[in-house]
Amino acid sequence: MSIRPLVILPDSRLRLISDPVARVDARVRAIVEDMFETMYDAPGIGLAAIQLGIPERIVTVDVGRRESEDDSDEAKNPIVLINPEIVGASQELSVYQEGCLSIPEYYADVERPAQVKVRYMDLNGETREIDADGLLATCVQHEIDHLNGVLFIDHISKLKRDRVTAKFTKLAKQKERDGA
């Protein structure tokens, strides 16, 4: 297991549509282990493989520690979603302040369905479904968006989106000039 570098806005890889995983094997399991290690280190509650530069439909989520305010390993509730797809969503909407490991230190209120049903493969290659609500529903939708080249800033006003994109583009150019 290893912590991998995160892909940060304005990197164009964040706009790629990720490819389906054909089969769950040792390579996919190793990616998942690295994703969890990277996500916990960041710290974050969700991560899509594309955020590590891997354009495959793999998501890791763990809202357990955030919901319990307990940072111990006992509060962990890791979930792996391979080839996830939303197969149902509530009409009821909820608003959460979202952030993203690929857009550090920027947060905005995003409205999404309050509940979703997601079909996915687990680490054994078995098809499963999960009914998610609350923070888990928001996090799962956010990460599935990543697999489709969509960022949470695409759900806010164009003015705010343009401002944050310009800020991160400027930071990336500055970093490049500084040789970092």
Structural topology:
Elements: H1 26-41, E1 46-48, E2 58-61, H2 64-68, E3 79-89, E4 93-100, E5 103-113, E6 115-121, E7 127-133, H3 134-147, H4 158-177
Antiparallel strand pairs: 1-2, 2-3, 3-6, 4-5, 6-7
Can you offer a commentary on this structure?
Fe cation binds at residues 100, 142, 146. Its cofactor is Fe(2+). This is Peptide deformylase. The active site is at 143. It is a single chain. The protein is α+β, with helices and mostly antiparallel strands and 180 residues long. It is 31% helix and 28% strand. It has a single domain (12-177), classed as Peptide Deformylase. It is built from four helices and seven strands, in the order αββαβββββαα. It is globular.
- H/I helix tally: 4
Tally the beta strands. 7
- Biggest beta sheet attributes: 5 strands, antiparallel
CATH H-level superfamily: Peptide deformylase
**CA-based shape:** globular
Quick take:
One of its GO terms (molecular function) is peptide deformylase activity. The protein has helices at 26-41, 64-68, 134-147, 158-177; strands at residues 46-48, 58-61, 79-89, 93-100, 103-113, 115-121, 127-133.
Keywords:
five-stranded antiparallel β-sheet; globular; Peptide Deformylase; 180 residues; alpha+beta; hydrolase; 31% helix; two-stranded antiparallel sheet
